Amino acid sequence: MNIRTLRSDHIYQKVAQASPEEKLELFRNEMMAPFMKQWQIQQIPFRADEANGFDVIAFNSMMHRSPDQITGQISSEIELISSDAFWLECENAVRQSLNLFHEHQISLPVSEYLFTLQLGNPDSRALTINEGYSGFGGIPGFIWGTILPNEYTIPRMKAALAHECNHNVRYQFIQWDHTVNLGELIVSEGLAENYVTFMFGEELLGPWVTKTNAETLNSRIKPALREQLQLTGFDQIAPYLYGDEIAELQNFKPVNMPYSAGYACGYYLIQYYLRKTGRTIFEATITPAAQILEEVEGFWNEETIISG
Prior knowledge:
Order of helices and strands: EHHHHHHEHEEHHHHHHHHHH
Strand order of the largest sheet: 1-2-4-3
Radius of gyration: 19 Å
Largest sheet: 4 strands, mixed
Number of strands: 4
Keywords: Hydrolase, Protease
Oligomer: single chain
Organism: Paenibacillus nanensis
Number of helices: 17
Structural class: alpha/beta
Number of domains: 2
Shape: globular
Helix content: 40-55%
GO molecular function: peptidase activity
InterPro entries: DUF2268
Distance between the termini: 39 Å
Domain DUF2268: 86-294
């Protein structure tokens, strides 16, 4: 297994020192180009054509610092993600997250991985509602972390990367296409966050789980999601998965769901599944959602207790 780290701090330092005219292409070529295969899979143009201004830079800038924002004025942010120790901790989290599957007799089809971290856009509500950190790992072989660097987020980056590595493994075995439904995404997020607690303990559970209390989960989220597990179409799924506020930011119709409803529900659903079946998180990660959901019928009727 080959895991390559793209040191974004070095790229940010270069872009910050570049002239305004040079910043855009320098950022595109150094930060975006190594992920070319991902952009192709996601069908996001590397460069915009004249008819459509949307490209990888526009997409990336929705949640991250755009090239024109990378100046000497954010040198303190860049400095916060520039220590070798921090990058080593992040790389170790990725390496261990992936290697543990091999150690549990699960051979991964993908052998080449690239990961990086990016500075988040502090004006992104989708990021600040997540307490300043996030990630993306749904395309096998590519793993991203997003951070507004501070004392709270820096220690949690390794957990975000473990979460994304779990997605990265799952989608080497589970086909993602237009038929993906809400049940799959609830299961997937639940698996990823249970993987975090397996590796680092409940103290690094993400806010997408910890902000939900038992009353909200049992009386509001579970009854609604149970009826929508077969729902398809991301515009339909998003409000149930992320909650109304984030869905509305993406111009989707709200459905009276609180923040990260699907994540919190998924976390406790997978806990129930692991307890009931005795399966490991490794086995569960590559198990189809339909099979998992068949085993957890009792979850929907049983009141979930949230400790702490």
